[in-house]
Amino acid sequence: MISVVIPLLNEEQLVEQLLEELWTELPQTGEEFEVVCVDDGSTDQTLHKLLRFKEKHSGLKILSLSRNFGLQAAMTAGIEYAKGEYVVMMDGDFQDPPDLVPVLFEKIKSSGTDIVSAVREARNEKFSKRVYINIFHRIFDKLTGGQQVAQTGNFCILNKEAHRAILQFSERNRYLPGIRNFIGFNHEFILYDRPDRLKGAAKMSRRKLFALAADAIYSFSKWPIRVCLYLGILGVLIFLAAIVYTLVSKVLGLAPIGWSSMFLAISFFGSVQLTFLGLIGEYIYRIFKEVQGRPLYFVQKVYE
């Protein structure tokens, strides 16, 4: 059986069309299937439309979360409740085309691989969003030493072994595409052009995108804290050079007069220290969230 996991937040304009297309495409696989929709605290008619669709299609499973817990938590809830031998992860905004689900399934069956991810060859979104995302992928690829696959999101298919491996992760600040690459296994890809959102407003605001990017970088790269170390060493070298310069200037009678040099030195070291404190604070906050051990989400009701 194939399980298709879709997190949804206020997608009343798209959800029925998305499900109709899935019910058209999934029979092409020749396998039984279920669609697991996770209502991530929607405040519109998304849940109502899901329940109405379920009256005619028993293969739809609905998880209603008690509030909005975020995309990564909602996706995690869906894959934890998925029962299929193959699990498809996809977004619910029509930017992951339903007609590619049979393509993903055919690829994983024919290649005998464990994971098949959809790589975005082109993006038809707003220019500013494309710029932000391309910059993130370039930085993330460099910081992780090329261990991550650029231009991949949630859209993929997993076999049972890869699915079980992802379920072993218990971290609260999670980035599922990074986790998917971290577990290893045999990994194949298909290319596709990512369309723009069909209807409605994007739920991942600029602030949420930056927060997700920060979680990805802090979770899978040691470079933020390594940069602090390098800057600290650079500051010490500059300080030692300043001592030598001051002593030589005193001996030669060239010592600078005034407060400007002192002010610049204090400003430099003060800003470096504040930067370090802010960065360390980010790590401490994430450690605090992990130590709290709070549940990632709460399911209010399951409709199946």
UniProtKB/TrEMBL annotation:
| Coiled-coil stretches noted in the UniProt entry, renumbered to this chain | none
Q: Which UniProt keywords apply?
A: Glycosyltransferase, Membrane, Transferase, Transmembrane, Transmembrane helix
As for subcellular location, the record says: Membrane
Q: What GO cellular-component annotations does this UniProt entry give?
A: plasma membrane
Q: Where are the transmembrane segments?
A: 227-248, 260-285
Q: How does the record classify its membrane topology?
A: Multi-pass membrane protein
Q: Care to name a GO molecular-function term for this sequence?
A: glycosyltransferase activity
Q: Does the keyword DNA damage apply?
A: no
Domain named Glycosyltransferase 2-like: which ranges? 3-165
Output this protein's name: Dolichol-phosphate mannosyltransferase
The opening ranks of the lineage are: Bacteria, Pseudomonadati, Bacteroidota, Bacteroidia, Marinilabiliales
